[in-house]
């Protein structure tokens, strides 16, 4: 326990100090935080509950649009803002900007959770691959439909309010970094505390055998909906922050970007190890470093690399990093290992 | 008259969808794999016909050439990737084929450019009901060709040795193996035939409509939808639900506007799945 506490404090200190140690990577670090949040949220129902969703991008995009719309709509007419296409006809004062962003983030987190609760009863009744395809359809439909709605910019996109001239240009990166870092810490704490309760056991029971879980008297539907709502809450929050960070929202390329973000979150969770607490965190970090380090070498071939990466990870590495570690050092995970048994297994191999 | 036009358009379009869905039903039934890359195979087939058109050959010949090439693409894909996911969890196959789909999309984008293209067949148009209904002859041609291909395939599956082996494997792969069917070969052939059907459909789509590297996913979703509405191995059902989907799409296009066309297809998928889920949950069952 003591060791863990030191680890957490080290990570926390490093997280707070990071933008000052690496000032050039502030935006990358904020994106990393958002990616970790997404991987963790996907893992709640993808890894722990066994409901592999391709559609969590729905909540992410919803949060993004909601946060930006609230931030603008609180002070200015929304339709005129989007029509002007980012021309600075209206300027937020710093107070307005931060107020709007705060309220926007709250809305961006709560509304997707409510949406997840509303559609949860219908969608979560589907199982296995039907659930996967249905959520895939939901995500793409949301992108296509939001691309046709005029008030949020339709096809030409939505420019989020520019950061107010406040403490120089540097403050922008730090503001969004700390926003995303605080949300990440919040997400991690909430998810960790959830995972130490009975709730996680129920989710695992649903993953292992839903019929039997139901037969044991667990109201599986209730737990599934709550799990999805938690996932949607933080997903929406991450979307809201990402919208402000990117500064421009497009329906299919930024918000409901199933081809990029929607796949990334699944891939990161699987790469790190489904159904573990630290897996998504490690997976997202490794993935982001790989992506940023090598994407530039591929020069436009990044999607080809992504496609190959998905196939390779899924086929040859479905257990993920944590699964691999677990197999290699089972003692560290609190599993009791019989030494003779292990030797025999190694010899068998 | 608009509704007659939309109905006819939809039915002709739906026959094409049914052809793609037939391929999907075939490999879903035999290999128990949902192929997200289905639509991208269609688009690839379309580009083959388009290239023939660019080099001065009439694109209608693509209907013959494209399936032959696509058959080998399908078999190659099977040997490289699909054979490793056949017996695994369904989600793994979905994700792996999703990766293939992204890969194909981007490779086609590099190879052929991101423009919307169309192979002009020069077939002219037919006017019906005092020119109130306009039907391009290419649409009639494509519907006709797809029906011929579907019928040929059904006869082939019923009579040939390979067809019998495929049907046996679909019923029980283990028993088929015991009785001397080389299931590995059957799987490869099934995936190849599926890809070939996609090739035919793609060639027809490149003549009738337009193709674009990123247009694959809607075709996958449409064929998935048709298969789950009709059920596996229900051929007349596939044809009818394909036409129904085509008509629905034309009406959605006309009533809601073109920008909501794809969105309405995806929403329809969600609605159908939810409808079936509620219907089955009355019997305490779920979609399997």
If you had to describe this structure to a student in words, what would you say it looks like?
The complex is a heterodimer of chains A (349) and B (288). By secondary structure, chain A is mainly α. Chain A has two domains: 26-318, no CATH class; 320-349, no CATH class. In chain A, 74% of the residues lie in helices and 1% in strands. Chain A has 16 helices and two strands. Chain A has a two-stranded antiparallel sheet with strand order 1-2. The longest helix of chain A is centred in the N-terminal third of the chain and has 30 residues, at 94-123. Chain A is globular and about 75 Å long. By secondary structure, chain B is an all-alpha fold. Chain B has one domain (2-261): ABC transporter involved in vitamin B12 uptake, BtuC (Orthogonal Bundle). Chain B has helices spanning 2-31, 38-54, 62-80, 90-112, 137-159, 161-171, 173-178, 183-208, 216-230, 235-256, 261-281; strands at residues 125-128, 133-136. The model of chain B has no long low-confidence stretch (mean pLDDT 84). Classes of the chains: A mainly alpha (349), B mainly alpha (288). Chains A and B meet through α6, α12 and α14 of A and α4, α9 and α11 of B.
